[in-house]
């Protein structure tokens, strides 16, 4: 897929106020610092499209972008901030649950996972919840350039082994790097494929 147009549309603190669900939608989510903004900018080839400076204390917003006038890309607020208050965490849970359960045009959630890290409870639990709710998702391993290919392979194998203890069928997964562009074609091809269905 060639991205010829990528525009910021809206920021909402309430899922109820998202744009009308008239186009297929793909949401990106992950722990803070996982590389979500960098990945969105890499995919769209727009350096400043997603802001890389989101700090934990800030209002958590659902950001909609429209791509090629054909589909929505959504930057969801991340989870796993250690310093976040109970109130903010509860608000995040309410907002994300509402969004995930009610967004009629949501085709797939991209769950971003730092390829350097061993499986983290927050990610595993989030994916289990998606599974329980029947929400389609894939895993996107980020920052593949941070270690050697052999190390990435070993880390990935460990992660998938852990996942296979939980899941009968492993979710689809992609390996990416915002630095090198690794995985870009695969992710965009996947979106194009789902858009065609
Ligand atoms: P976010 O908080 O999930 O949006 O994460 P950011 O996109 O802001 O990235 C967090 C940090 O990781 C920044 O310093 C990025 O430059 C860095 N980063 C993100 N993706 C990659 C990547 O693919 N490779 C490398 N080497 N660094 C990355």
Can you walk me through this structure?
- There is one protein chain.
- The protein has 197 residues and is an alpha/beta fold.
- The protein has one domain: Rossmann fold.
- It is 36% helix and 21% strand.
- It is built from five helices and seven strands; from the N terminus they run E-E-H-E-E-H-E-H-E-H-E-H.
- The chain has helices at 36-44, 86-102, 121-133, 149-166, 184-196, and strands at residues 6-12, 25-30, 62-67, 71-75, 106-114, 137-142, 173-175.
- The protein has a seven-stranded mixed sheet with strand order 1-3-4-2-5-6-7, sandwiched between helices.
- It is globular.
- The model has no long low-confidence stretch (mean pLDDT 92).
- The structure holds guanosine-5'-diphosphate.
- The site of guanosine-5'-diphosphate has 18 residues, from helix 1.
Offer a few descriptive terms.
Rossmann fold; GTP-bd; 5 helices; 7-stranded mixed beta sheet; metal-binding; alpha/beta; 197 residues; magnesium; binds guanosine-5'-diphosphate; single chain
Q: What's the SSE blueprint?
A:
Elements: E1 6-12, E2 25-30, H1 36-44, E3 62-67, E4 71-75, H2 86-102, E5 106-114, H3 121-133, E6 137-142, H4 149-166, E7 173-175, H5 184-196
Parallel strand pairs: 2-4, 2-5, 5-6, 6-7
Antiparallel strand pairs: 1-3, 3-4
The structure holds guanosine-5'-diphosphate (GDP).
